[in-house]
Amino acid sequence: MSSINTNASAMNALSTLRGINKNLEETQSRISTGLKVQSGKDNASYFQISTTMSTESGMNTAINEGLTLAKNSISTAALGAEEIVKLAKDYMDRAAFAQEEGVDQAAVGTELAALTEQMKTIIAQSVFNGENLLAAGGAKVITTGVTRNATGGLETTNQTFTFEAFSDIVTELEAQTAAITASTAGQPEFEAALGLAQAEVDKAIAGATTLGVSEKAIETQQSFLNNLTDRLDSGVGAMVDADMEEEAARLQALQVQQQLATQSLSIANSAPQNILSLFQ
Asked: Which molecular function terms from Gene Ontology are attached (predicted)?
C-alpha cells in the first residue's frame, strides 16, 4: 500500500543515513585526533585506566627533571672534589719534601698556604643552583620516584646520600699551615703536616668517590624512569590510540555507504510522485 502521508521507505533510508553519518563523524574524529578513546563515553574502563597511567607517566617525568637538578649539583661537587684531591696530594708531597735537611721550609710553608687558598677557592666555586655540597656536606635526601600504595594513594620513594664536608678538610690543613708559618722550629710542624695531609687526602678521596657513586646511582634511576615512562606511554597508546590504517579503510567504506544511502533516500522520496500517474 502506498500512502502520501507516511513514506516508510524514506523513513528507513533516512534512519540508515543518520547511522552512517554518525559512524562517519566518529571515524573522522579518530583520524583527526589520532585517538579512539577521547572520553569516558567512548570506553569508560579504558579511559579511566589510561588517564591514571598518563598521570603516573607525567609524575615520572617531573621526578626525572628533579633528578637532573640533583645530578648536576652532585656532578658539580664531584668536579670540585677531584681538584681538591689533586691539591691535597700536592700538599702532602710538599710536606714530605720539607722533611729533608737543607730545604727552604719557609718557602714550602708559603706553597702550602697557597695550596689551601686554592682549595678554598674551588670549594667556593663548586656551586650549582645555589647548592654547595662541598661546603655543606652532610645528608641529601633525593626523591627518586612515586608509587601507589595498597589503598591507591601516592607515596614518594627517596634515597639519602651522605657527603663529606670538604670545607672541614681545608680548615684542618689551613690550621696546620698556620702552625708551620708561625713556628721557628719548623721540622715538627712539617712532620705533623705530613701525617695530617695523608689523613685528609684519604678523606678527600673517599668523599670524591661517594660523589661519583651518588651521581652514577642517579643516572641509573633516571634510565629506569625513562624506560618506565616509555612503557606507560606505550600501554596508554595501545588502549586509546586509533589504528590509522583501519580507520582509513573504514572511512572509505563509510563514504561509499553514505553515497548509497543518499541515493536510496532520494529514490524513496520520489516514490510517492508515481501515485500522480494514477490520476492522469
From this structure: structural molecule activity
Amino acid at 65: E
Residue 279: DSSP 8-state: G
Q: How distant is the alpha carbon of residue 185 from its chain centre?
A: 59
Alpha-carbon distance 149 to 43, whole Å? 26
Beta-bridged to residue 143, according to DSSP, are 158
CA 143 to chain centre: 11
Cβ-based neighbour number of residue 255 at 10 Å: 14
Among 166, 193, 168, 197, residue whose Cα is nearest residue 182: 193
133, 167 in Cβ contact below 8 A?
Answer: no
Q: What pLDDT digit, counting tens, does each position of 179-214 carry?
A: 887 765 557 788 888 889 999 999 999 999 999 999
- Determine the Cα–Cα distance for residues 84 and 46; give it in Å rounded to an integer: 56
Name the grid cell of 159. 634515597
Q: Please, is 264 exposed, middle or buried when counting C-beta atoms within 10 Å of its C-beta (0-12, 13-18, 19+)? A: middle
Q: How far is CA 183 from CA 91, 111, 172, 178, 227, in A?
A: 18, 16, 17, 9, 61
Contact 258, 21 (CB under 8 A): yes
Q: How many helices (H) and strands (E) does the chain have?
A: 7, 2
Looking at residue 42, the DSSP 8-state letter turns out to be T
Taking only the tens place, the pLDDT of each residue in 225-242 is 999 999 999 999 888 888
- Which CATH number is associated with domain 44-240? 1.20.1330.10
Domain residue ranges of the chain, discontinuous segments joined by +: 44-240
Exposed / middle / buried, residue 251 (Cβ in 10 Å: 0-12, 13-18, 19+)? middle
Tell me the pTM: 0.78
